[in-house]
């Protein structure tokens, strides 16, 4: 994994709430009274190259990729709380709307398909209709450019997202939906992997595809939609979906979600990742209709929606706590960088409360973090960095400063800690003790956002 220095980026434009009339985008109720309002999107991001396995792990600590840029938001400072969301077929309760979309689609592509038993709904018919249809087919292929795909992309962006046609270029399409951080071998895949994705072989024991993929939808041999997906070891991640506005009546966005859920189920991928969930953004709410779980980054636990839904209201930050449990009121939660399922967590079957305010609305916790920063600066030569790459003392869901200090004090981290860095195009090993103060601070930032183990394994690009 080759990773550039994490940047701390704050932008006044936010794609999620841009059109929103709402002016209450605070993480905490207490911020509402103490800060002047300033709506902005705040992220930590790096340019990186990594394998699907590595991306899988990053995604499960809150990252998403856009091309080869990976980012996660600062849940305390950003206007919209972006939560990682995942689901699977058994967690998805098909709604009336889902059934309508499926029935309409089946009628379009395979009107002769025998009807379901009276008053029942059978998702299996969606699969059958695709097999039998003479009008509709999809093709899985490596994420690459073609003029046909670009034309559809442009039509979609201009019509649905009101992009200026001048701005929608071949280059932007390639950068956004073709360019990936994955190794060539995974991008290309092999014929066995793509054969395994053919509908007819879904029921067999297949070699699974791992890699970035375009699923192209054709109706009467015309390209009408493209689903951009990453096949990863723990599941299938939906990146983007483009559809031809002339076929709006088919609700292809919703349909593709259901189709992919069914595919995950049949092929044996555990999870379907729908990207980031923004409770506040009406455009994103459809994601919750697929059911599933959302990631509490601070506890590193996936919670079923119905357990934490009340805490998500108004787009506030939630950090789950178990009622009756006492929490150390001076510290942020410890982090290890590997989330677990709700059922395996201490929260299983406990009554939950939201402790976000106790931690991030608590002056003591903030002061403690500031004191720790000073100690790291003075005793361990970890100076402040310039604003572009400097991380705040508190960011929910990254390793807290007190934990870093604790590692220094207990010898988990010391001057012998070694990282691989890319210098003048060559990888070399460098110990913390041999670095300048600035480089040491940068390495500490890598550790805070990616974890100790990942940092020691990755290749760091300083420029
Ligand atoms: Zn926003």
Quick synopsis:
By secondary structure, the protein is α+β, with helices and mostly antiparallel strands. 32% of the residues lie in helices and 22% in strands.
The total count of helices amounts to 15
Average of the residue pLDDT scores = 93
Bound chemical compounds: zinc ion
Q: Write down the overall geometry.
A: globular
**Share of helix, binned:** 25-40%
Percent strand equals 15-25%
Strand order of the largest sheet: 7-8-9-10-11-6-12-13-15
Unreliable stretches covering 5 or more consecutive residues: none
Largest sheet: 9 strands, mixed
Radius of gyration: 23 Å
Care to count the β-strands? Answer: 19
Instruction: Give the structural class.
Output: alpha+beta
C-alpha end-to-end distance: 16 Å
Characteristics of this structure?
463 residues; alpha+beta; nine-stranded mixed β-sheet; eight-stranded mixed β-sheet; 15 helices; 22% strand; binds zinc ion
Can you describe what's shown?
Keywords: Acyltransferase, Transferase. Belongs to the R-transferase family. It comes from Candida maltosa (strain Xu316) (Yeast). The chain has 463 residues and is of the alpha+beta class. Among the domains are: 181 residues, no CATH class; 98 residues, no CATH class. The protein is 32% helix and 22% strand. It has 15 helices and 19 strands. The strands form three sheets. The protein has a nine-stranded mixed sheet. Strands 1, 2, 3, 4, 5, 17, 18 and 19 form an eight-stranded mixed sheet that branches. Helix 12 crosses helix 13. The model has no long low-confidence stretch (mean pLDDT 93). The structure holds zinc ion. Zinc ion binds next to loops.
């Amino acid at each position: 994994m080759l990773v550039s220095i994490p940047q701390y980026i704050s932008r006044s434009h936010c794609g999620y709430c841009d059109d929103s009339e709402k002016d209450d985008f605070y993480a905490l109720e207490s911020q509402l009274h103490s800060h002047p309002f300033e709506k902005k999107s705040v992220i930590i991001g790096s340019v990186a190259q990594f394998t699907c396995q590595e991306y899988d792990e990053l995604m499960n600590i809150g990252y998403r990729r856009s091309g080869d840029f990976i980012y996660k938001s600062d849940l305390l400072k950003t206007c919209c709380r972006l939560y990682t969301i995942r689901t699977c077929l058994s967690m998805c309760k098909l709604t009336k709307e889902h059934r309508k979309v499926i029935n309409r689609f089946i009628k379009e592509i395979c009107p002769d398909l025998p009807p379901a038993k009276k008053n029942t709904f059978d998702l299996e018919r969606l699969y059958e209709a695709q097999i039998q249809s003479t009008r509709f087919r999809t093709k899985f292929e490596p994420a690459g450019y073609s003029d046909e795909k670009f034309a559809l992309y442009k039509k979609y962006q201009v019509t649905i997202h009101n992009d200026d046609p001048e701005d929608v270029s071949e280059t932007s399409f390639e950068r956004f939906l073709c360019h990936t951080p994955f190794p060539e071998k995974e991008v290309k895949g092999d014929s066995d992997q793509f054969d395994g994705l053919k509908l007819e072989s879904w029921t067999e024991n297949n070699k699974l595809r791992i890699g970035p993929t375009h699923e192209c939808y054709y109706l009467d041999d015309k390209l009408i939609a493209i689903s951009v997906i990453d096949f990863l070891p723990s599941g299938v991640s939906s990146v983007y979906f483009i559809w031809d506005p002339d076929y709006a009546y088919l609700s292809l966005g919703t349909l593709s979600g259901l189709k992919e859920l069914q595919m995950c189920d049949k092929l044996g991928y555990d999870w379907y990742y729908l990207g980031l969930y923004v409770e506040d953004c009406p455009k994103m709410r459809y994601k919750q209709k697929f059911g599933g779980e959302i990631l509490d980054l601070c506890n590193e636990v996936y919670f079923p929606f119905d357990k934490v839904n009340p805490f998500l209201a108004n787009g506030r930050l939630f950090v789950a706590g178990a009622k009756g449990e006492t929490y150390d009121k001076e510290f942020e939660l410890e982090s290890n960088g590997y989330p677990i399922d709700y059922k395996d967590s201490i929260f299983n079957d406990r009554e939950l409360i939201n402790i976000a305010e106790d931690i991030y609305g608590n002056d003591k916790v903030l002061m403690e973090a500031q004191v720790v920063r000073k100690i790291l600066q003075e005793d361990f030569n970890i100076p402040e960095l310039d604003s572009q790459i400097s991380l705040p003392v508190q960011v929910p869901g990254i390793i807290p400063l007190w934990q870093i200090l604790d590692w220094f004090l207990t010898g988990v981290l010391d001057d012998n800690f070694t990282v691989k860095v890319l210098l003048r195009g060559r990888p070399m090993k460098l110990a913390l003790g041999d670095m300048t103060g600035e480089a040491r601070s940068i390495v500490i930032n890598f550790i805070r956002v990616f974890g100790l183990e990942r940092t020691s394994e990755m290749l760091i690009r300083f420029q």
